[in-house]
Amino acid sequence: MVQFNEKISRRGLIAGAASLAAMPALASNAAPAATTQAPPPAAAAAPGAPVATTLSVPMTPNGKPWDRAAFEAAMAASGRKVSVTDEQFSAIQARKPAAMAAIEAYLKLRLGSADPLVLAAFQALPREYYHYNYEEHRSTCGDAYDQPAKPWALGYGSALSDYLGQAYMTQVIAPKPGEISLEIGTGSGFQSSLLSRIVDHAYSIEIIEPLGNAVKQIFGPLGYDNVTTKVGDGYYGWPEQKDGFDIIIVTCAAQYAPPALFAQLKPGGRMIIPIGQPFKQGQVFYVYHKDATGKIHSRRDMGCFFIPMTGAMMKVPAAQASATPA
After folding, report:
1. How far apart are CA 195 and CA 203, in angstroms?
2. N or C: lower Cβ tally within 10 Å for the chain?
C-alpha cells in the first residue's frame, strides 16, 4: 500500500530544486514539510474566488472513468505498482477543485486571464499519476494537488514542478491545436502530457537515463499516444523532427539559449527558457518568438529557479555554441 507518511528527502528535493517556475510570488526559503499526509477534503472556495470549470468524473482517452481501479491498473502497466484505499483515492480527488481554482486565479493575477485550453488540459490530467519517486520506487500520490503548490522529488536529482509554475509556462507559450511541441527536460512527464492534451504531438528529451527510460513507460497506459520521448542531450534539440516545432519549453536553467533550439523553432514559434547560473539566484525566464522572416524577438520575463541544464551546456562556452554537434 502506498505510504502517506513517508519522509521527503530534503537533499533530493533541493537537488531537484526545481520548481519549474519557483517565481518570486511562490518562492520560499522555508524547509519543505518533513512528512506527507493523507490529503484533507478540499476547502470551500472563498466568496468571490474564481472557480475553474469542473468536469464530472475524469475520463481516460479510452473512455474509461478515472477511478481507483483505473489508477492502480495504469500504475501497474507503467511498472509502478501502488495500492490505495477508496478513502485515500477519494481524498486525493477532493483536493483537485481547489488546486484548479488556484491555477485559474494565479493565471489571472499574472497574465490577466486564464486560457481555457490550459485549464481544460490541467483538468484532464490525473496529477497523482505523476507523483512518483523513481529512485526510491515509491508513490507520493497523496501529495498531488498540495497547497501551497511546491515541487516534489522524483529521484536522480529531478523534481515534479509545482503546478502553478507549470500553468504559467504553458500559458506564456500559448499552445494551440495543430501544433507540435518540444520539451527539454522530461522529468515526471507531466508537462509533456499537459501539452499533449492541446497540441497534435508532444516531444520531450530527458538527459538522466534511468529517469527517462522509466518515464517513457507512463504515457501508454493513459492512452496518450501523441507523446514521444527519448533519452538524450536537449542542448541539440530534436533535429530528426525535420519540420521543427511551434513551441519549445525548457524546464532546466541554461547559461544561454542553445542555438539548435532557435534553428528548430518554426516561423511563428515561441520558446520559454530559464537563463542563469546553475544553483544560483538571479535566473530569469526569457520568452522568444520567431517571426515569419525567421528573425528572433526576445523579452525578459520574471525571475525563477531551476536545476541546471547539463551535458553540452556545461562544456560549450556561448562563444563556441553552434546549432549542430562539433
Report:
1. 9
2. C
CB 109 within 8 A of CB 24: no
Rounded Cα–Cα distance for residues 176 and 117 (Å): 8
Half-sphere exposure at residue 194, Cβ-oriented, CA atoms within 13 angstroms: 28
pLDDT digits (tens, 9 = 90+) for 208-259: 999 999 999 999 999 999 999 999 999 999 999 999 999 999 999 999 999 9
Do the bridges between strand 138-139 and strand 132-133 make them parallel or antiparallel, or are there none, so unpaired? antiparallel
Spatial distance between the Cα atoms of 14 and 134, rounded to a whole number of angstroms: 16
Query: Which ranges of 148-196 would DSSP assign to H, the alpha helix?
Result: 163-173, 190-196
- Confidence (pTM): 0.82
State the Cα–Cα distance between residues 248 and 257, nearest whole angstrom.
Answer: 11
- Which amino acid would we find at residue 180? I
Cβ neighbours of residue 217 closer than 8 Å, sequence gap 6 or more: 78, 79
322 is catalytic: no
- Catalytic residue chosen out of the listed positions 78, 139, 161, 204: 161
Q: Which are the contacts of 147, defined by CB distance < 8 A and separation ≥ 6?
A: 95, 98, 99, 102
Q: Look up residue 247 and give its amino acid.
A: I
Q: Is 49 helix (H, G, I), strand (E, B) or coil?
A: coil
